[in-house]
Every structure is written in C-alpha cells, then in structure tokens.
Design brief:
Keywords: Cytoplasm, Glycosyltransferase, Purine salvage, Transferase. Pathway: Purine metabolism; AMP biosynthesis via salvage pathway; AMP from adenine: step 1/1. With 170 residues, this protein is an alpha/beta fold. Helices cover 25% and strands 36% of the residues. The longest helix is centred in the first third of the chain and has 13 residues.
Amino acid sequence: MDFAAYVRDIKDFPKQGVIFKDITPLLNNPEALARACEALCGFTTNMKIDKVVGVDSRGFIFAPMLAERLQAGFVPVRKKGKLPYKTVSESYDLEYGSETLEIHTDAIKKGEKVLIHDDVLATGGTASAVCKLVEKLGGEVVQCNFLVELTFLDGAKKLNGYQIEALLQY
C-alpha cells in the first residue's frame, strides 16, 4: 500500500516555514489504518515485546493497537503534570524551548522489553527522552518505531544505538 498517498502536507503549520505531515487522512481510511498497523507490527517480527510505550499525544493512536496485536501492555508517556500516579520525568530541548515528559513509576518492570512508538521522528529529542525514561525504570528499549521519519532533521543521530524503523521517510 502506498501510505504516502494518505499523508498530506500542510504549509506553515504550526508556524511559518514548517511543512507539517498530516496523518489524519490515513487515520480516516479503515484499510490504510489497519495496513499501517500491520506494517508497524511487521517491524517487530521475532521480537519479544512486553510493553508498548506511546508518546503524548499522537503516539497514543497506534501504540495501543500495536500493544493489543503484540499481546503486550500499553504505557502512556505524557507531558508533565498529566499523569495521576507517581512519576519519573525527563526534560529535553526543543527547537523553540524545552519540554518535560513523565511516565508512571510502576509502568515498566526491570528487564521488560519495550517498543517505543510515536507518529513522527523529527529532531529526536522526544524519542531520546522517552528511551531515557524507559531505562530509568529498568526496561530495555528493543525498538523505536514511527509512522514518519523526517530524515533531513537527523533525529536518528539522537537515537544512536537504538533500532529505528519508520513506515515513511521524507
């Protein structure tokens, strides 16, 4: 399936000069949605996955679907102050400031194999922070997978040492 046909460019969003990769047409098409989930699962063939971590907020779309298909638990990583239980946090820099992400302290047990999913790999800051959170809890990141990788932003460099997979690359 040509997944790129279901991703549209939105110029100057969220700010001037940015071309945003909008995945909502893919989400709106049942066949494309199902096939994208199958393809993302295909990246994990022959891997043991205990938990799938979804990154706030668009990572929450596919991560629970992946968890269900992989017979794994789903773990949300959210922006600071959004989770109700005890958390550990990790701060990171963005192009235009900084952000802090949190995960529940009991979400991942020592030695669990973890798949991290987000919609887009851009500069790599978010994914790198999530890897650190998983490792703080004793989990082992076995793969970071994404719907889209914006290769021109070199985000994979911040994930050096981790297996990275993306359905589409731009």
